[in-house]
Amino acid sequence: MPLEPRESDLPRIRGALRFYKIASVITGVMLLLLCVEMIIKYGLGYELELAGPYGFLALVPTDTAVAINLSTGILIAHGWFYVVYLFSDFRLWSLMRWPFWKFLLIATGGIVPLLSFFLEARIGREVTAYLDRRTSASTQKVEAPTA
């Protein structure tokens, strides 16, 4: 029998879901930026340079950036946002008391392009539906007439 979330955790689940949704979108966008950056760097042989001698934002040949290397910045930012995404995944997973495979499935959203957007929608619907069912069930218990 699968475990159910504790009654005391239900209010915290809504906050964890909101945090997960925000982290999921940010991580997904950063992953898409990282994919574009990798195509530019390894496919075309250029890097993004910010505030350099060629202007505010410029493509320069790989390993020739003299100002802020935006390509490296995107890589580092995605890595840190993925850590935040994993934390939000863990928080929601532990409050919902799901099996471990579901944690691993959600975690792949930060490493497979576009998957975080699909998972965010699916997990959001699933958790919201669950919370609505639990809320209506507890409301019906309270409103039931006593004999």
List the helices and strands and how they pair.
Blueprint: H1 10-44, E1 46-52, E2 55-61, E3 68-69, H2 70-96, H3 100-107, H4 115-143
Antiparallel strand pairs: 1-2, 1-3
Helix pairs in contact: 1-2, 1-4, 2-3
InterPro entries: DUF3817_TM
Protein name: DUF3817 domain-containing protein
Subcellular location: Cell membrane
Strand order of the largest sheet: 2-1-3
Kindly report how far apart the N and C termini lie: 32 Å
Tell me, briefly, the overall form.
elongated
Task: Write down the overall mean pLDDT.
Answer: 90
* Number of helices, where a helix is a run of at least 4 consecutive DSSP H or I residues: 4
The description of the largest β-sheet is:
3 strands, antiparallel
| Helix-and-strand structural type | mainly alpha
Strand content: 5-15%
Helical residue percent band? 55-70%
Low confidence ranges: none
For the record, the count of structural domains works out to 1
> What's the number of extended β-strand segments?
3
Gyration radius (Cα, Å) is 21 Å
The secondary-structure element order is: HEEEHHH
Keywords: Cell membrane, Membrane, Transmembrane, Transmembrane helix
Domain DUF3817: 17-123
Main location: membrane
Membrane topology: Multi-pass membrane protein
3D architecture notes:
With 147 residues, this protein is mainly alpha-helical. It has one domain (8-137). The protein is 67% helix and 11% strand. It is built from four helices and three strands; from the N terminus they run H-E-E-E-H-H-H. The chain has a three-stranded antiparallel beta sheet. The longest helix is centred in the N-terminal third of the chain and has 35 residues, at 10-44. The chain is elongated, with a radius of gyration of 21 Å. The mean pLDDT is 90.
